[in-house]
Amino acid sequence: MKPLIFAHHSSSQLVSSFAEKVNGEITHVESHDFPDGESYLRVEQNCFGRTAIIIADLHQPNAKVLPLIFLCETLKELKIATIILVAPYLPYMRQDKQFQPGEGVTSRYFAKILSQHVDKLITIDPHLHRYNSLDEIYSIPSIVLHTTAYIAQWIKESVNKPLIIGPDSESEQWAAATANIINCPFIILQKERFGDRDVQVSPPEASCYKDHTPVLIDDIISTGKTMIKTAEALKEDGLNAPVCIGVHALFSGEAFNEMQQANIKDIVTCSTVSH
Ligand code: R5P
């Protein structure tokens, strides 16, 4: 039996190419928001004994998660055999410890919620910093896919004399792995965060790479401030304007416009988030 493919806020292009690759059947969910904001949903398809694959764009998760839970529970009511959640971007991974007394460690709570409703999770480059693996917080099996090889291939084909730069210690895993594949130099900077939009990046001290093209690699671009501040620091050091690569481009608020106006040559992202 073909798996049933459900789209949850994901682009129709992604869903149809995915369905084609796994020979799945794209399945419509009738949904409606009542005037009071509560949701109605109906799945007409016969689900008995089938596998459901839900492809979900979970960027801006709060409004999307309750309807996702309702979908999962409806499918279980209809006797689906297995629910696989494909979430190319896995949110709520950055609050991975209590930084201040009294804070909620939301990565754990979010993992607990998803683990109660789906049977398996497939995602791409989740923000694993203080956790070594999703198994530390998710009680369901998960598969983690990586973008490094694709990013490295793109850099090889498109960038002259790349110098890979990780703007903070958390980005080292992506920056170092990419530089190793390309066999090019890389440096990791230190970042201090003072607020959502307030970051400071250590001077790169990389003036010996003035003939290179800096390539900034980070897993997430949210406000874009990490990229913008790093690009400014490179300029002060006399380096070329960088190419900025983000796996998950959230582009919060005016981030994309602000990055376009900054000392940045190109902005390149993977298509884990629709925009
Ligand atoms: C940090 O933990 C992440 O890896 C990114 O560096 C961060 O999310 C970037 O945020 P922003 O674009 O708001 O500076």
Question: Helices, strands, pairings?
Answer:
Layout: E1 4-8, H1 12-21, E2 25-26, E3 30-33, E4 39-42, E5 51-56, H2 62-77, E6 82-87, H3 106-117, E7 120-124, E8 142-145, H4 148-158, E9 162-166, H5 172-182, E10 186-188, E11 191-195, E12 198-201, E13 213-221, H6 225-236, E14 243-249, H7 255-261, E15 266-269
Parallel strand pairs: 1-2, 1-5, 5-6, 6-7, 7-8, 9-10, 9-13, 13-14, 14-15
Antiparallel strand pairs: 3-4, 11-12
Bound molecules: ribose-5-phosphate.
Write a concise keyword list for the protein shown above.
alpha/beta; 6-stranded parallel sheet; 15 strands; 29% helix; 27% strand; binds ribose-5-phosphate
Q: Your description of this structure?
A:
The chain is α/β, with parallel strands linked by helices. It has helices at 12-21, 62-77, 106-117, 148-158, 172-182, 225-236, 255-261; strands at residues 4-8, 25-26, 30-33, 39-42, 51-56, 82-87, 120-124, 142-145, 162-166, 186-188, 191-195, 198-201, 213-221, 243-249, 266-269. A six-stranded parallel sheet has the order 2-1-5-6-7-8, sandwiched between helices. A five-stranded parallel sheet has the order 10-9-13-14-15, with helices on both faces. The protein has a two-stranded antiparallel sheet with strand order 3-4. Helix 4 (148-158) crosses helix 5. The radius of gyration is 21 Å and the shape is elongated. The model has no long low-confidence stretch (mean pLDDT 97). The site of ribose-5-phosphate (R5P) has 14 residues, from strand 13 and helix 6. Ribose-5-phosphate binds at residues 94, 168, 170-171, 199, 218-226.
